[in-house]
Amino acid sequence: MEGEARKPGERRLQILQTLAAMLQDPKPEKITTAALAARVGVSEAALYRHFSSKAQMYEGLIEFIEQTLFGLIARITADTPSPTAQVEAILNMLLNFAAKNPGMTRVLIGDALVHENDRLQKRINQLHDRIEAQLRQCLRLGSDKESELSAPLANLLQCVVVGRWHHLPRADLPVRPAATSICCCHACSTFILPEARSVRTPDRPGHVALSSHGHRPASRPTAASGRSGVRPPGPNISVLPSPALRR
Is a pLDDT exceeding 70 seen at residue 235? Predict the structure, then answer.
């Protein structure tokens, strides 16, 4: 078939690119090797010369996602001095990567792996754990209060990101990663300001709310605006562009 003379590395990359493109279908179905081979323009036997199984193809896609995300995280932590700014930049990057790569987002949330090998979902779970650990590490480098709250805050921010990932591949929902980034950064700035302190609210015994000295808690979103009317203080973090699959 056409293109059989390609170098092995180029053909392997083309297969992964095609798999990611097929996962972007607004009405996705279970991807078969026959459909993948037809889209690539090769025989099924040619696919198995580069990957021993379909699970290994997904593993190749997961490996690319890991290398991309953690490569960008390493760049952020190296170039950004403030731990709080590092967290905000990481959140922006995670959301924008998902928005620009909806097919790979279906892999990140496990939607594309439902009928595949169980080890693939375990690897995605490990990827999520690594992201949360990186957020926790950034928070630990901040003030004493940030360090004290690093575990629950990292888990909270990770849950927000994964929740937005679940919305992005859906065609019936608007994709607004920028607004989501602002929301995440709002939560980050509100809860991990260096001067944050615990406040026990008198009307709710046992309830502990976090606020900063001299600041009221962030206002709740209104039905008209859809987001908070108060913009939190904090550095203006530029969004890092996510690379395409082809490097």
Answer: no
What is the separation of C-alpha 195 from the centre of its chain, rounded to a whole number of angstroms? 28
CA torsion sign for 105, 109, 113, 114 is negative
Percent of the chain having pLDDT more than 70?
63
Q: Is the model's pLDDT at 214 over the cut of 50?
A: no
Does the pLDDT of residue 65 top 90, yes or no? yes
Give the N- to C-terminal CA distance of the chain in Å, as an integer: 26
Q: How many CA atoms lie within 13 A of 129 on its CB side?
A: 6
Instruction: Look up residue 90 and give its two tokens.
Output: 């990481």
Express the helix, strand and coil content of the chain in percent, nearest 5 each.
60, 5, 40
| Residue 200 DSSP code | E
- Helix ranges, 52-149 (H): 54-79, 83-100, 102-108, 118-140, 144-148
Q: What are phi and psi of 199, to 5 degrees?
A: -125, 125
pLDDT of residue 167: 83
What does the domain layout of the chain look like in residue ranges? 1-52, 55-247
pTM: 0.69
**Which homologous superfamily is 55-247 in?**
Tetracycline Repressor, domain 2 (1.10.357.10)
On the question of pLDDT at 177 being above 70, the answer is: no
| Domain 1-52 bears CATH identifier 1.10.10.60 | yes
